[in-house]
């Protein structure tokens, strides 16, 4: 039979006669109520109290009259007043009784059910239809201060014939966990919730099981399928923590190269999945990958195991994660560098760990090699040499490993030389592009220093700020005094180690040799040029273009990433671009650091010599900070400009003198931090 | 009033017990039955003796009231027995019966008509009000009018403020040492004056009076003041429970003699009759000799609905010692061990020589005699369980402040219907939850699943001689991790396992207590008696008896094979919110919304102790394992510790920020664990709290203890849950702490 007519739930008159939570209302004059019993309460019509401050609700006489009218009874004023007062009292009484039910149900929230019970026990008809858990939206009518609960019509037919029948809610169950052991601490750290996998929806749970089984299972075809899906599935965000947890299991399978490999592939798939926002899980993933790179895995005891490939792959993966997701976790780059450096400087570590550190640095780009590996090389070389020179039979295995490390170092430094040479030549011909690292030059938002680069101490401190993690934990590497070694020096040093093994050759003639000294000068020249645009306050608005350029900086840094990231700041979402920009900023700042250093910006360890040698330009410099601050700190800050007319006795003036003035240039509040941010914000799009 | 009620209840109890042989034909527990009965005549004889001796007209009236009540409820046989017992002439019954026909009908019309009077007023009609019913025949709500009439005196309403502020000025001007004591008068005086004004229809004056002086009252009376402020009309006074409490009971104040003299002299000098009348009529001033108490001492003890407990109320001797455990020879030889293993009990290690179990305990001088309350005999399975218990006890971890227990949390997931009560069996093998959707669910915590007994037809096929008959009767097809028990028609507010794990009790909003079998997972009995929501129930530590308490302000003692209560403990002025058995099963403690705790003697139904000091309804009680102390937790977030023997408050543990729903002592009593709505479990150093006690003679004599504020020293740890209120705590036999609650996302 076909149901023909629409059965529609009429909002009954009764349902409108609902008393709702007590409201402050106008109270009429006193009168003695003779009504001892009120059957239905109502509070639809409510006016705010205007008389006295009372702690409970009152129902106005008007409401009562309205209610009566809706049922067809005409009430006299005095009757309504009496009724109103009594209704109020009964309401309060019911509320007091109902709170008892709430307390015994061990709840904090008073429910309609509680009130109904109270009503029932005092022989009053319960109010039906408000049992739902969700809040009732109160609506108000503009004229007349009328509040009511929306009572929508429900199409029963539709409801009855609906195909999406909701499942019953999950079964009530009891789960036990050891919350505190011997009265101490949470045994189960927050976040690791493998047991909670069971609380996922069935589909997800099945997917999770299938995928993990396929990846860690025997069938390579299945594995490939699973990895592909992991890479492209858009609906697995909820499972991310669990996958991350699975991946963190690398530590327990360090004897099984195959499994390690699979887990790394899993990392890769997750990283490549465009629908996943990894968030702080990046840190966990990175630590798993680092484990594969650096740890003397149990699998590497057997020389037949090719753990070298695993380390290479992991290193590649690391750089991939870093370049694509490094922005999600602040300070990640430096943490990675730090741990790599630590391993490298630890002679107790086995050679395979050192190998991992070298390939890791190599994968992170030539800057990393220059910063960490190169300064460390002389110290390390002695150890390696000892290994390589030991021709005893017992040493054969170690020596083989040593050769591996040697090879890795060689590859790394060759690339370093190549890139450095390339960057120098670029800066030489680019003019505006003084240093690829400091993209600053390209647009002119930066410190411009004719003759005297702003040797601001706070500035240089902030530049060092990032590296200062490294300083703190860095074993033996004098970061503070680190300054880029000019290419020829570097080359000659490396040549002393590797001899003709170096594939990159430079002439050691004067032409080339004289080149580096001129680089800072060129650079300085370049910096002077864009003064014009700087003066224009509108330049701030051009910044998006600028950042589009900036995005490419990783590649210029020599990142292993082959194609430049899409310069699509406008295209991507604001949030994402914001996050991105921070990575850009970081990578840029780390690279610009070298640029600025080369311009003599290092701390006053060698200041005099540098300044004296570079005193050539007019003794004045202008300093421009433009653009808006990134983030919420200081939005929409206008660019401003300060010009110093420098005194003639400038050479005698130590750069420190300016350090005192610089905070004033920025903001008065917290000079150093301001400087930090303003310096960073120079090139930021937002 | 309390005395009158007590007598009445006694008489009623006797009647109930006497009718048992007639009405109750269960043969299950015959031995126990007989013992119970043999005990009860003794008590009733004692009570019966006292009555004719008292012989006061008041008592006569009470008896008549009870007689009438019995007749009204068609319990003519009981009435007859009572009449004979009391030695009343037969015509009394008839005469009064005829007389009371009016009120009887009136009462029924009352309930049928469903007057707006609140539920409580009806309770009072049937219980304490019943006492007065015969004397005031013809009124529809006799009790209310009786009490209200006390307010009918007409003073000049305008002068009330003057009176009150005059007294206020006086008290503010007295010496500091007296001021704190005399300030106690403010609150009851304020309330009664306000009510007088309201009763005499001086609404605006009443309001003004309230506005002016309500701010002066102690903050812990806020709740009551709110109720009071909502009441502005004479009509409202009818059937307001808080009011009834105020009128039916005298507010008790403890004041030193000096301070009292001061007050008396002042009032008489000023001819301040209005206030003096109120003090005379509505206040009970318990005068003691000695130093006036300090403000903090007073604050510690006050806060209850009807003031402090009278000192006499806590004078009775309480046998708080433990009963001697029956000697059970421990089967230490390996054969028994193996036999047990075959039964599938999870025992792997061989038990060590048990030293603690075999220590021969001398009879504790404070313990009641072994047979004071007849207890069920031990069954074989109980003995087996005792053995298990002793074995476990040898592996118990000795807790100390530096060796805190581990905590396991049982989280109820998907409890959308609302978890309202939890209980865990003593051996921690089963956990049960009571839910707001009227269901009770039982889970097995061990791998052993829950099974039903086979059907009758299948049971017939079983070889009853076989050794493993207990195993064979179980139906493996029904094995499951949890079972759901349906039967209640309202939220289940209290549940309790029997000590032998074969029964489960549940109390519900529907006014019944139900007994469930954990063998068949069906309901065996529904105990009807409360008629109003039953907030809590608990089995006695020896099984068989259980206690329940509810909205009708009465706690009842039941035996599982009696469908009528054996005792009714009446005296609380508001709902009985929680009930606990003393470890020796001779006493029952009840906590109430009137913010007092009472200890009742199971033998004679007397109230042996009244503890005041909480500032909110009490929701958790726990006896220390040695039976000497009681801990109580309330909505005010404080745990109070009581010495039962001396009737003293001995400690105050502050720290929780919300209602405390569960309290539990560790098995050896070193640690007190408290679980609260504020999502924390806190551990307290109970040993230290009880050791630091100074009990000099003065303190014992007056009951005035000076509490040092050392909550922070006693707090051993605070443990957060993950958004889960802790509603039950349990120490396993090895002192692992189990906590339970429903996850509230």
TrEMBL record, chain A:
Q: Pfam families given for it?
A: TAF, TAF6_C
- The reply on keyword Transcription regulation is yes
Where, per UniProt, does this protein localize?
A: Nucleus
Q: Where is the composition biased (Low complexity)?
A: 576-602
Which residues are in the TATA box binding protein associated factor (TAF) histone-like fold domain?
Answer: 57-120
What keywords are assigned to this protein?
Nucleus, Transcription, Transcription regulation
Q: Which segments carry the region annotation Disordered? A: 550-602
UniProt cross-references to PANTHER family, sorted A to Z? TAF6-LIKE RNA POLYMERASE II P300_CBP-ASSOCIATED FACTOR-ASSOCIATED FACTOR 65 KDA SUBUNIT 6L, TRANSCRIPTION INITIATION FACTOR TFIID SUBUNIT 6
Write out the similarity annotation. Belongs to the TAF6 family.
What is the name of the protein in this document? TAF6-like RNA polymerase II p300/CBP-associated factor-associated factor 65 kDa subunit 6L
Its source organism is: Ataeniobius toweri
Question: Gene encoding this chain?
Answer: TAF6L
UniProtKB/TrEMBL annotation, chain B:
Protein keywords: Nucleus, Repeat, Transcription, Transcription regulation, WD repeat
Q: Where in the cell is it found?
A: Nucleus
Q: What is its main location?
A: nucleus
Domain (TFIID subunit TAF5 NTD2) spans 155-283
Using the UniProt annotation, give all residue ranges assigned to the region (Disordered): 1-59, 92-120, 330-377
Q: Gene3D superfamilies in the record, alphabetically?
A: TFIID subunit TAF5, NTD2 domain (1.25.40.500), YVTN repeat-like/Quinoprotein amine dehydrogenase (2.130.10.10)
SMART domains assigned to the protein according to its UniProt record, in alphabetical order: LisH (SM00667), WD40 (SM00320)
Q: Which domain of life is it from?
A: Eukaryota
PROSITE patterns attached to this UniProt entry? LISH, WD_REPEATS_1, WD_REPEATS_2, WD_REPEATS_REGION
- Residue ranges annotated as compositionally biased, kind Basic and acidic residues, are 10-21, 353-364
Annotated WD repeat ranges: 412-453, 485-518, 527-568, 569-610, 611-644, 653-685
Q: Which PANTHER family match?
A: TRANSCRIPTION INITIATION FACTOR TFIID, TRANSCRIPTION INITIATION FACTOR TFIID SUBUNIT 5
What is the official name of this protein in its record?
Transcription initiation factor TFIID subunit 5
Q: What is the source species?
A: Ataeniobius toweri
């Amino acid at each position: 039979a076909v149901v023909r007519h629409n059965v529609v739930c009429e909002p009954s008159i009764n349902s409108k006669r609902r008393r709702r939570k007590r409201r402050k209302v106008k109270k009429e004059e006193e009168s003695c109520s003779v009504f001892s019993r009120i059957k239905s309460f109502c509070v639809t019509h409510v006016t705010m109290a205007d008389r006295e401050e009372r702690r409970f609700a009152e129902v106005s006489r008007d409401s009562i009259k309205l209610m009566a009218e809706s049922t067809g009874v005409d009430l006299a004023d005095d009757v309504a007043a009496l009724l109103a007062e009594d209704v109020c009292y009964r309401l309060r009484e019911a509320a007091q009784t109902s709170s008892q039910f709430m307390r015994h149900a061990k709840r904090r929230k008073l429910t309609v059910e509680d009130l109904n019970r109270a009503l029932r026990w005092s022989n009053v008809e319960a109010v039906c239809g408000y049992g739902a858990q969700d809040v009732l939206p109160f609506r108000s009518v503009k004229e007349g201060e009328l509040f009511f609960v929306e009572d929508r019509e429900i199409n029963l037919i539709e409801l009855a014939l609906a195909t999406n029948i909701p499942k019953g809610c999950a079964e009530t169950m009891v789960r036990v966990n050891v919350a505190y052991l011997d009265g101490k601490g949470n045994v189960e750290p927050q976040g690791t919730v493998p047991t909670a996998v069971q609380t996922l929806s069935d589909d997800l749970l099945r997917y999770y099981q299938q995928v993990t089984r396929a990846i860690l299972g025997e069938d390579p075809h299945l594995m490939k399928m699973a990895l592909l899906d992991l890479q492209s599935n858009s609906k697995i965000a909820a499972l991310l923590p669990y996958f991350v947890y699975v991946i963190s299991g690398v530590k327990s399978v360090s004897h099984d190269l195959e499994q390690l490999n699979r887990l790394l592939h899993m990392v890769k798939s997750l990283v490549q999945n465009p629908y996943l926002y990894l968030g702080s899980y990046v840190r966990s993933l990175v630590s798993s990958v680092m484990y594969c790179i650096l740890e003397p895995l149990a699998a590497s005891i057997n020389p037949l195991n090719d753990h070298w490939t695993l380390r290479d792959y992991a290193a590649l993966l690391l750089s991939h994660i870093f370049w694509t997701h490094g922005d999600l976790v602040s300070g990640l780059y430096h943490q990675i560098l730090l741990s790599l450096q630590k391993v490298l400087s630890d002679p107790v570590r086995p050679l395979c760990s050192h190998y991992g550190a070298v390939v890791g640095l190599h994968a992170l780009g030539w800057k990393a090699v220059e910063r960490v590996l190169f300064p460390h090389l002389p110290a390390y070389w002695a150890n390696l040499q000892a290994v390589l020179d030991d021709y005893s039979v017992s040493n054969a295995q170690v020596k083989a490993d040593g050769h591996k490390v040697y090879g890795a170092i060689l590859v790394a430094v060759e690339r370093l030389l190549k890139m450095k040479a390339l960057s120098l030549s670029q800066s030489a011909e680019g003019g505006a592009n003084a240093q690829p690292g400091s993209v600053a030059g390209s647009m002119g938002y930066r410190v411009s220093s004719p003759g005297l680069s702003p040797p601001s101490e706070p500035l240089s401190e902030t530049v060092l700020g990032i590296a200062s993690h490294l300083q703190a934990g860095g074993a033996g590497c004098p970061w503070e005094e680190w300054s880029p070694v000019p290419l020829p020096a570097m080359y000659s040093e490396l040549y002393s180690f590797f001899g003709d093994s170096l594939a990159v050759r430079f002439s050691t003639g004067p032409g080339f040799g004289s080149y580096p000294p001129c680089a800072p000068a060129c650079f300085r020249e370049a910096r002077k040029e864009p003064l014009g645009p700087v003066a224009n306050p509108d330049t701030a608005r051009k910044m998006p273009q600028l950042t589009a350029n900036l995005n490419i900086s990783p590649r210029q840094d020599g990142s292993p990433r082959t194609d430049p990231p899409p310069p699509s700041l406008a295209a991507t979402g604001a949030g994402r671009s914001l996050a991105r920009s921070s990575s850009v900023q970081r990578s840029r700042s780390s690279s610009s650091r070298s640029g600025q250093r080369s311009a003599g910006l290092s701390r006053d360890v060698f200041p005099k010599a540098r300044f004296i040698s570079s005193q050539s330009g007019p003794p004045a410099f202008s300093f421009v900070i433009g653009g808006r601050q990134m983030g919420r700190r200081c939005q929409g800050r206008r660019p401003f400009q300060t010009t110093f007319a420098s005194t003639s006795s400038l050479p005698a003036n130590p750069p420190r003198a300016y350090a005192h003035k610089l905070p004033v240039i920025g903001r008065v509040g917290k000079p150093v931090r301001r400087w930090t941010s303003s310096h960073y914000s120079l090139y930021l799009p937002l | 009033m309390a005395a009158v009620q007590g007598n009445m209840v006694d008489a009623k109890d006797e009647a109930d017990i006497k009718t048992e042989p007639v009405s109750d034909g269960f043969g299950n527990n015959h031995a126990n039955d007989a013992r119970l009965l043999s005990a009860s005549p003794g008590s009733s004889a004692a009570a019966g003796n006292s009555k004719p001796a008292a012989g006061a007209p008041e008592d006569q009236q009470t008896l008549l009231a009870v007689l009438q009540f019995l007749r009204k409820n068609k319990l003519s046989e009981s009435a007859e027995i009572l009449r004979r017992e009391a030695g009343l002439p037969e015509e009394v019954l008839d005469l009064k019966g005829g007389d009371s026909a009016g009120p009887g009908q009136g009462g029924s019309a009352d309930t049928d008509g469903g007057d707006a009077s609140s539920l409580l007023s009806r309770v009072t009609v049937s219980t304490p009000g019943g006492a007065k019913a015969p004397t005031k025949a013809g009124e529809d709500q006799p009790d209310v009018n009786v009490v209200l009439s006390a307010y009918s005196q007409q003073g000049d309403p305008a002068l009330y403020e003057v009176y009150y502020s005059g007294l206020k000025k006086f008290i503010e001007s007295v010496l500091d040492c007296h001021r704190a004591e005399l300030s106690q008068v403010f609150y009851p005086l304020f309330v009664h004056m306000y009510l007088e004004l309201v009763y005499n229809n001086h609404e605006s004056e009443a309001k003004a009076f309230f506005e002016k002086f309500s701010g002066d009252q102690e903050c812990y009376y806020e709740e009551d003041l709110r109720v009071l402020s909502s009441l502005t009309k004479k009509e409202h006074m009818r059937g307001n429970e808080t009011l009834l409490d105020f009128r039916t009971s005298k507010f008790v104040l403890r004041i030193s003699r000096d301070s009292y003299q001061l007050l008396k002299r002042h009032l008489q000098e000023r001819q301040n009759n209005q206030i003096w009348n109120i003090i005379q009529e509505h206040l009970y001033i318990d005068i003691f000799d000695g130093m006036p108490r300090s403000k903090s001492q007073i604050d510690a003890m006050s806060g209850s609905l009807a003031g402090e407990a009278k000192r006499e109320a806590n004078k009775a001797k309480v046998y708080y010692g433990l009963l001697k455990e029956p000697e059970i020879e421990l089967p230490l030889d390996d054969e028994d061990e193996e036999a047990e293993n075959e039964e599938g009990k999870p025992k792997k290690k061989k038990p060590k020589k048990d030293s603690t179990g075999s220590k021969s305990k001398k009879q504790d001088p404070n313990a009641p005699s072994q047979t004071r309350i007849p207890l069920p005999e031990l069954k074989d399975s109980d003995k087996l369980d005792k053995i298990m218990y002793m074995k476990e006890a040898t592996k118990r971890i000795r807790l100390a402040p530096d060796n805190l227990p581990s905590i396991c949390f049982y989280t109820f997931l998907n409890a959308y219907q609302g978890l309202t009560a939890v209980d865990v069996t003593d051996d921690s093998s089963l956990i049960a939850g009571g839910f707001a959707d009227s269901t009770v669910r039982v889970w097995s915590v061990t791998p052993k699943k829950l099974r039903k007994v086979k059907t009758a037809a299948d049971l017939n096929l079983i070889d009853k001689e076989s050794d493993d008959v207990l195993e064979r009767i179980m139906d493996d097809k029904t094995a499951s991790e949890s079972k759901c028990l349906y039967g209640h028609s309202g939220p289940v507010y209290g549940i309790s396992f029997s000590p032998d794990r074969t029964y489960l009790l549940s109390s519900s909003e529907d006014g019944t207590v139900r007994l469930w079998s954990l063998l068949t997972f069906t309901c065996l009995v529904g105990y009807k008696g409360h008629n109003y929501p039953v907030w809590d129930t608990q089995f006695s530590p020896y099984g068989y008896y259980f206690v329940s308490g509810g909205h009708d302000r009465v706690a009842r003692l039941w035996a599982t094979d009696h469908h009528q209560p054996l005792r009714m403990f009446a005296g609380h002025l508001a709902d009985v919110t929680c009930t606990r058995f003393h470890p020796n099963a001779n006493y029952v403690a009840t906590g109430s919304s009137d913010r007092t705790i009472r200890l009742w003697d199971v033998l004679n139904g007397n109230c042996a102790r009244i503890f005041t000091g909480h500032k909110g309804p009490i929701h958790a009680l726990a006896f220390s394992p040695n039976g000497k102390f009681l801990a109580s937790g309330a909505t005010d977030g404080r745990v109070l510790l009581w010495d039962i023997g001396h009737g003293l408050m001995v400690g105050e543990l502050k720290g929780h920020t919300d209602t405390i729903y569960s309290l539990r002592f560790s098995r050896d009593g070193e640690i007190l664990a408290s679980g609260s709505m504020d999502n924390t479990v806190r551990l307290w150093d109970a040993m230290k709290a009880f050791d630091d006690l100074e009990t000099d003679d003065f303190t014992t004599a007056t009951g005035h203890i000076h509490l040092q504020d050392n909550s922070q020293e006693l707090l051993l740890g605070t443990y957060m849950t993950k958004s889960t209120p802790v509603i039950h705590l349990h120490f396993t036999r090895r002192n692992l702490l189990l906590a339970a609650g429903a996850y509230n996302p």
